[in-house]
Amino acid sequence: MSATGSDDAGSDAPLSPATEDAAAAADAGPAPSFTGLDTYLDSLVTRGVKGFAMQIYDARDKVVYQREFGQCSTPQMCPPGSPAFKVDLATSIASSSKWVTSTTVLAVLDQAVESGKAPNLDAALDAKVAPLLACTGVSGPVTDITMRHLLSFTSGVIPDHPCVSAQSSTLASCACDILRDSAANMVTSPTAGSPKSNAHPPGTTYKYGASHHAVAGAVVEAITGKSYSTVFAERVATPLGLTMKYRSDTNLAGSIGTSVTDYARFVAAVFHDGLGQGPKRVLSVDAVAQQRKAQVPASVTVLMTPQPGLDYGLNTWRQCFEPFDASAIANPDTAKRDPSCKSVFINGHSGKGGYTPFLDVGGRYYAVFAMREVSPGGGADYTADELSVSDSIRMLTHLAMTTGGK
């Protein structure tokens, strides 16, 4: 993971100053051509993908591309009965839930800054969370965990604690179980012990997993005095008119069910808030910048990641390429990564099975691609095939919206 330190704001592409400026720039560019994207999606059909749905929006929130194909038939990911895969079909979105959870948490921290409870967002992100939870039997390095650690997967906790999937758990009880068991199974070296069953001092390792979100959700409840579901409704879902729902009270990392059109409303809000002129303010411009900026220092040891070599923000993947053309699509691995993120910077959070929501940090477009397949994509982890599909979708969309598809 070729990331810079969390205080290196200069490594990120600048946020566009206004929605109107971005829209004008998009209008001035070449007319989009989606021939390459259509050809690629046709190839997925030939390879046996059963169904997918996709929408691309321009900077003025106009749908400029939509395609629907086949059925959604993967158990646990799709509704029963293998319904037609449409943009309004609600499916599981797996790890794309993380982007929504991060946004909800950041909205609460924004509110803490607005109310004077925190001097600024950096301070809110770097405050220790253990005192807010008042868990018994918690001591040692876990008491130094911050919200920044949790949302960047560098908290060091046992990454996938059983309580996250236990129906009898609450966020408060699960968070305390995670911290207690992490304290009891702490190892001092990033390379010692088992990444899955041992904990590591915060800020020393990157371990992708659902435990971080359970702790973050419990902190949200402690800060607000309300249930996480209520906070999500008040701060995100209701203002944006979303129908998405978490299907678990404790698994905030991967349990949301929603449709392409519904998730696109969420992406639109983050897209416009980053531009500084969102029609319905969900996050401050500072919060969007924090979400997108590199949050994993180079000194961190990466122990568990589904996407080796990619930078991570606050529950968003940072897809940074040097300028490329259509010849790179045949083999996305040939596209040269740009660690500085000064050129092509695509941000979002994919999910197991091929769910790929993303936006252009330059302010020209945003999109949601939904694929719910066992192969490519699926299993316990992301597959190389699935990652290739997600990269190709992002790259072809970027070419279509910025170079006319060339």
Structure explained in plain terms:
This protein is of the alpha+beta class and 406 residues long. The protein has 2 domains: 9-90 and 259-402, 3-Layer(aba) Sandwich (Beta-lactamase), CATH 3.40.710; 101-224, no CATH class. It is built from 12 helices and 12 strands. The chain has helices spanning 19-28, 35-46, 97-114, 121-126, 130-133, 147-151, 171-184, 211-224, 228-240, 260-275, 285-292, 384-402, and strands at 51-58, 63-70, 91-92, 205-207, 245-246, 256-258, 301-304, 311-312, 317-321, 344-348, 356-360, 365-371. The strands form 3 sheets. The chain has a 7-stranded antiparallel beta sheet with strand order 2-1-12-11-10-9-8, sandwiched between helices. A 3-stranded antiparallel beta sheet has the order 3-6-5. Strand 1 and strand 2 form a beta hairpin. Helix 3 packs across helix 9 (228-240). The two termini are 29 Å apart. The model is unreliable at 2-19 and 376-380 (pLDDT under 50).
